[in-house]
Amino acid sequence: MAKANAASRAPWKDRIGSVRRSANEHKVGALIISDPKDVGYLTGFLGGDSWLVVPADRRKPILLTDSRYEEDVEPLKAFCSISMRIGAMTGVLTEVLKANKIKAVGVQAEHTSLATRDLLAKAVGAKNLKTTTGVVAGLRAIKDKGEIALIRKALKIQQEALLATLPTIKPGQTELAICARLEFEMKTLGSSDPSFATIVAAKANSSKPHAHPGAAKTAKGKPLLIDWGATWHGYHGDMTRTFCLGKWPKVMSEIYSVVLEAHEAAAAIIAPGVTNHEVDRAARKVIEDAGFGERFGHGLGHGVGLNVHEGPSLGQRGPLTELQPGHVVTVEPGIYLPGIGGVRLEDIYAVTDRGRTNLSSLPKDLKWATL
To answer: Which residues contact 324 (CB under 8 A, 6 or more apart)?
Structure first.
């Protein structure tokens, strides 16, 4: 949504205050936030194509946007200065920095292109340009109660959409037809967009973790994997369920049971202080002990929020991270047998002070997954 959420402005002051502190730590006059999702996190405005200048002192942050969003940014004037641009973003930024006597600035290295950095270096001087990493990402990794409520709502929408779609699934339907119905149901229930390209994978296509829906058709006694997500006020849901139309083939029911056990083993140990590697290992051990270790190639999960993939990551590779209250992560173990089919089961969990809570509520048992 482009329009700022005027009903929940409380977080912006604290979030911007954290960025101010980072600006002072980096010894710059301001930090330039160019990632549109970070701008949304700090202001509630998710229109995109806008930058936020956060001064190190107590002056209001300055949103650089354009006339397309004139009405959408009106609620932000209570805590932001608005600068409407006509030309290039770097041009108006240079003018704003000069008008506010800001010399040294920090930019988001993970989002700012080399070309933009070169232009800014010419404008403010190379010595006055510093790169920063993870300033806002670190804040976004810990969700507050309001953010978790928005993720819950996204999940509620997508679960209701799936429940409305399941009775319509019959043998002989194409993956694209099922995908279209599911996305229609999500939009009807209020999702602004799918969280990502919906995965509907029939028969052997379910062995491809990121299959693209196509002309392949469902069939009796064959698996159907659905990985889908809804979006609510910019926040994402993400779940996966695997079904079979009628009686499960023996090998598919076997790997379904293993994946379900792996999912439950990993979810059971999610708690503050437990590392991302430990959670991944809990699921991976179950799959390895069952003899399918080589058929689970991806990481166990990822953070979810304004991006459908963000920190922290649950995996055996990458930086070691201790889970903290407010982390929201997926748990999605899978086993994929090329030419036969695959199973993945995914829910979203929020880390709490004492453990975890599952924000998803759809069943995962084999009986429920038999259509």
So the answer is: 142, 272, 351
CA 85, CA 260: separation in Å to the nearest integer?
Answer: 53
Model pLDDT for residues 340-353, shown as the tens digit of each residue: 999 999 999 999 99
Output the pTM of the full model.
0.94
Beta strands 81-84 and 62-65, pairing class: parallel
Per-residue tokens: 243: 């079904």
pLDDT computed for residue 10 by the predictor: 67
Q: Where are the domains of the chain?
A: 6-140, 145-358
Mean pLDDT, the chain, as a whole number?
Answer: 94
Query: What is the distance between the alpha carbons of residues 156 and 229, in angstroms, rounded to a whole number?
Result: 10
Residue 288's SS3 state is helix
> How far, in Å, CA of 166 to CA of 243, rounded?
10
* 238, amino acid identity: D
Which overall architecture, per CATH, does domain 6-140 show?
3-Layer(aba) Sandwich (3.40)
Whose structure tokens read 């679960």?
159
